[in-house]
Design a protein that fits this description.
Order of helices and strands of chain A: EEEEEEEEEEE
Radius of gyration of chain B: 13 Å
Strand content of chain B: over 45%
Number of helices of chain B: 0
Helix content of chain A: under 10%
Largest sheet of chain A: 7 strands, mixed
Shape of chain B: globular
Helix content of chain B: under 10%
Oligomer: heterodimer
Largest sheet of chain B: 6 strands, mixed
């Protein structure tokens, strides 16, 4: 069965960076994009960006351009999301999710990781 | 950037029908997906491409679209349906979520 397992909770000080991992199993890793979505406490879902593990292509939401980097290690079926210059506003649960669809008219997130809490506090 | 709008909250009595809307410019030209998220859990797709129900989703969940408004309908709402619901569109290679609607069943 498809599973996305994320790394554990992280705590950082303002100005630091954090790197969260997402290990995929149960399907051919290179066939589907991995997306990152975050959710602050009591708030909605906020899409951050995607990566194609096959080609290494990435796309980022304008809000996070220059501050987020998504990478992958195909030898261990893992995608990473690194967010830099953290502020308290970045305190949130970060989810990875598999992208499904042709990327033209159809694209949605069919399987999600369990979420990783990132806390930014001095 | 593209935006879609949902009502912040909807209330429904058990057994009644709940409707949650999602509006956006040119929504009629795009597919809509609906996710259910319960507290402490990851989102789950309940409606795919406007009106398709994924395997395992109860028949009481349905989706429709009229003009630039998509609607998630839950018929015979149960207390277990109390959750946050998000619509999602795909625009210019960007995943766009609505702000979410808290469904209260009381």
């Amino acid at each position: 069965q498809v599973q996305l397992v994320q790394s554990g909770a992280e705590m950082r000080k303002p100005g630091a960076s954090v790197k969260v991992s997402c290990k995929a199993s149960g399907y051919t890793f290179t066939r589907y994009d991995i997306n990152w979505v975050r959710q602050a406490t009591g708030q909605g879902l906020e899409w951050m960006g995607w990566m194609s593990p096959n080609r290494g292509d990435t796309g980022y939401a304008q809000k996070f351009q220059g501050r987020v980097t998504i990478t992958r290690d195909t030898s261990i079926n893992t995608v990473y999301m690194e967010l830099s210059s953290l502020t308290s506003e970045d305190t949130a649960v970060y989810f990875c999710a598999r992208g499904q669809g042709d990327g033209y008219d159809v694209y949605y997130l069919d399987y999600w990781g369990q979420g990783t809490l990132v806390t930014v506090s001095s | 950037s593209y935006e879609v709008t949902q009502p912040p909250s909807v209330s429904v009595s058990p057994g009644q029908t709940a409707s949650i809307t999602c509006s956006g410019e040119k929504m009629g030209d795009k597919y809509t997906w609906w996710y259910q998220q319960k507290p402490g859990q990851s989102p789950v797709v309940v409606i795919d491409q406007d009106k398709q129900r994924p395997s395992g989703i109860p028949e009481r969940f349905s989706g429709s679209k009229s003009g630039n408004t998509a609607t998630l309908t839950i018929s015979g709402t149960q207390t277990m349906d109390e959750a946050d619901y998000y619509c999602q569109a795909w625009d210019s290679s960007t995943v766009v979520f609505g702000g979410g609607t808290k469904l209260t069943v009381l």
